C-alpha cells in the first residue's frame, strides 16, 4: 500500500517549537504505546538536545502489556525516563511528578548550587497528532486548558499551567509530524488512526491489519469471527459475513467490513495489541 501524505505547516510549527524549547527544562514526549517508534518524530532528539527527557507510553491500555514493559526497558536503556499511562482514565499519571523530579535532578541540583531554591521545573508536552497530548494535559492538569491554540502555526503567548510548586507545564503542546519514508511506518500510523482516513484505501489497510493479526495475534480472528482460513481477502469476506455487511445485490460490502475491522482494532475491541516490537524482543 502506498500512502501519500504531505503535512502542511511543518516548518513553521518546528520553528515555533524551537523557540518554546528554549524556555523549558524538560520535554515530556508522548508516544502511542502500540507503535512507540513509528509515533515518534526523530527531529525531537535534535530539538531537545540538552534538555531532560521523558517518554510517556500513552494509550498503554490499548497496547499489549508484555510489550509495554519491553518498550519501557528499551527507552530507559536510551536514557529516557519512562512512564506507562492511560491519559483517558488517568492511570499512571500519579507517578509522573516523582519521575519529573528524578529526570530533572541535575537542574534542581544546579539551581541549588546557585542559591535558587524551589524554582519549578518547566516542561513541555510534545508528540505527533492524535497521540493524546490534549487528553494528557487535561487529565494531568485536571482542567480543560489544553485546547487553546492547539493548532500548528497559531500565534500565541506562552501560558504556563502551574501544576504544583515544583512543576509548570507550557499550556500548548508541541506538535510534530510523524516521518514515514518507510511505508510500514505509514501503515502502522494509519492503523492507529493517526493519518486522515480520507486519504486511505480502507480495504488495503484492512488487509494489512489481517496480515499483522495472522502473524502476531492469530487467535483473534478465530475467536472473534470464527475464521480459520489463511487467505487475507477470504478473511475479509468472512468478516463481512460475520458482521452482515452486504451490498444491495447481496454482494459482500468489503469496505464496510474493512471499516468495522479497523475500528475494532483502534478501539481495542480486538484486544490489546502492539504493532511493533523493540528489536531485542522481536523474533
Ligand atoms: P492530540 O492532542 O495529541 O492530537 O490527541 P487527543 O488528546 O485529541 O487524543 C486523541 C484521541 O485519543 C482521543 O480520542 C482521546 O480520547 C484518545 N486518547 C488519548 N489518550 C488516550 C489513552 O491513554 N487511552 C485511550 N484509549 N485513548 C486515549 P477521540 O476518539 O478523538 O476522542 P474521544 O471520543 O475520546 O473524546
Describe how the helices and strands are arranged.
Elements lengths: L9 H12 L4 E7 L10 H5 L4 E7 L6 H13 L3 E4 L11 H8 L1 H9 L7 E7 L5 H9 L18 E5 L2 E4 L3 E2 L7 H10 L9 H15 L1 H8 L6 H11 L11 H13 L17
Parallel strand pairs: 1-2, 1-4, 2-3, 4-6, 4-7
Antiparallel strand pairs: 5-6
Helix pairs in contact: 8-9, 8-10, 8-11, 10-11
Bound molecules: guanosine-5',3'-tetraphosphate.
Guanosine-5',3'-tetraphosphate binds next to helix 6.
Summed up, what is this model?
This protein is of the alpha/beta class and 283 residues long. The chain has helices spanning 10-21, 43-47, 65-77, 96-103, 105-113, 133-141, 183-192, 202-216, 218-225, 232-242, 254-266; strands spanning 26-32, 52-58, 81-84, 121-127, 160-164, 167-170, 174-175.
Explain this structure to me?
The chain is an alpha/beta fold. It folds into two domains: 10-175, Rossmann fold; 201-281, Conserved Hypothetical Protein Ylqf, Chain: A, domain 2 (Orthogonal Bundle), CATH 1.10.1580.10. It has helices spanning 10-21, 43-47, 65-77, 96-103, 105-113, 133-141, 183-192, 202-216, 218-225, 232-242, 254-266; strands at residues 26-32, 52-58, 81-84, 121-127, 160-164, 167-170, 174-175. It starts with 9 loop residues before the first helix and ends in a 17-residue tail after the last helix. Bound molecules: guanosine-5',3'-tetraphosphate (G4P). The site of guanosine-5',3'-tetraphosphate has 15 residues, from helix 6. This is Ribosome biogenesis GTPase A.
Amino acid at each position: 500500500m502506498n500512502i501519500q501524505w504531505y503535512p502542511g505547516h511543518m516548518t513553521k510549527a518546528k520553528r515555533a517549537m524551537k523557540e518554546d524549547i528554549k524556555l523549558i527544562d524538560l520535554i515530556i514526549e508522548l508516544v502511542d504505546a502500540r507503535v512507540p517508534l513509528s509515533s515518534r518524530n526523530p527531529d525531537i532528539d535534535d530539538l531537545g538536545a540538552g534538555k531532560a527527557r521523558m517518554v510517556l507510553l500513552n494509550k498503554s491500555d490499548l497496547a499489549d502489556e508484555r510489550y509495554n514493559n519491553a518498550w519501557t526497558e528499551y527507552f530507559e536503556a536510551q536514557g529516557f525516563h519512562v512512564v506507562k499511562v492511560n491519559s483517558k482514565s488517568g492511570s499512571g499519571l500519579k507517578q509522573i511528578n516523582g519521575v519529573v523530579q528524578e529526570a530533572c535532578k541535575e537542574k534542581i541540583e544546579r539551581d541549588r548550587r546557585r542559591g535558587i531554591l524551589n524554582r519549578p521545573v518547566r516542561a513541555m508536552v510534545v508528540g505527533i497528532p492524535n497521540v493524546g497530548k490534549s487528553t494528557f494535559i487535561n487529565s494531568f492538569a485536571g482542567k480543560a486548558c489544553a485546547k487553546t491554540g492547539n493548532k500548528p502555526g497559531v500565534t500565541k503567548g506562552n501560558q504556563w499551567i502551574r501544576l504544583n510548586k515544583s512543576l509548570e507545564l507550557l499550556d500548548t503542546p508541541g506538535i510534530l509530524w510523524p516521518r514515514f519514508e518507510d511505508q510500514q511506518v505509514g501503515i502502522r500510523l494509519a492503523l492507529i488512526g493517526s493519518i486522515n482516513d480520507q486519504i486511505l484505501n480502507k480495504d488495503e489497510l484492512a488487509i494489512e491489519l489481517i496480515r499483522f493479526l495472522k502473524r502476531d495475534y492469530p487467535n483473534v480472528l478465530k475467536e472473534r469471527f470464527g475464521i480459520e482460513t489463511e487467505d487475507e481477502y477470504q478473511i475479509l469476506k468472512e468478516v463481512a459475513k460475520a458482521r452482515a455487511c452486504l451490498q444491495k445485490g447481496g454482494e459482500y460490502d468489503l469496505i464496510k467490513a474493512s471499516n468495522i475491522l479497523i475500528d475494532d482494532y483502534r478501539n481495542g475491541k480486538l484486544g490489546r495489541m502492539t504493532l511493533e516490537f523493540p528489536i531485542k524482543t522481536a523474533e
